[in-house]
Amino acid sequence: MRVSIIATGSDGNCIHLQSETTGILIDAGKWKRDLEKRLLANNINAATDIQGIFVTHAHGDHIKGLTLANKYRIPVWATDGEWKGISGVDEELRRVLETTWSKYERIEIGDDLHVYPFKVHHDAYEPVGYVVEDGWGNNACVVFDTGQIDDEMLEMMEGSNVYIVEANHDVEMLQNGPYDDYLKDRISDPHRGHLSNDQTAAALQKLVKGRGERIYLTHLSSNNNTPELASHAVRMALFEKGLINKRDYFLEVV
Ligand SMILES: [Zn+2]
Ligand SMILES: [Zn+2]
Questions:
Q1: Residue 242 Cα, ligand 2 centroid: separation in angstroms?
Q2: Longest CA–CA separation in the chain, Å
Q3: What is the number of the ligand closest to the CA of 27?
Q4: How many helices (H) and strands (E) does the chain have?
Q5: What Cα–Cα distance (Å) separates residue 221 from each residue in 11, 33, 78, 123, 139?
Q6: pLDDT tens, 22-80?
Q7: How remote is the CA of residue 135 from the centroid of ligand 1, in Å?
């Protein structure tokens, strides 16, 4: 599965995943024009290489370029709850992620992609993460904004060979940083906040087996994190398991 990080960070997130025959976007969090430029720069043709857009949640940094869907007639999937916060997508392109017994149903897209949404914990109506499976046994999981990675999430994410996960803040930088107490509390809240480097590292320590997994740390806060701190936290956690970067797994901070 080819992974292209089209944008990430507090001002916009967008990932393109491409199997042999099918491409999708997870989120479209840059304005349409900007998104089109970035897709082109990654050799992705918006008219032919995107068969669906999957939304994690309706915050601006994840949805502000969703009008791309109207222009190229791409269906957009989001949970019922998150559609409440999304406007500007043509009615006939809207798809709802359905649940059965409170579990999300699998979406089949193109010839060979299966998408499995799962619940995450964030300051939104009904936010989700995704596992995307191609026909060749490759799984990529995408977990953006969430205050924690719980056991149900770990179960969904387990066995992936691509982990695209938020590493939002360094706990110490957040505590000593410029934000007021309200915002600090919100960001650290396990039910509506964001993942710290330590939380992301602890989850990856459980998930990564050293089978050459590719790890992308994303959505770093520009005020409360640095790529070095995020990378260090994850490398140390995996080193405790005897795993070494570029030998047992491949880490990128984006
Ligand atoms: Zn958010
Ligand atoms: Zn976000």
A1: 32
A2: 51
A3: 2
A4: 9, 15
A5: 10, 24, 25, 16, 27
A6: 999 999 999 999 999 999 999 999 999 999 999 999 999 999 999 999 999 999 999 99
A7: 31
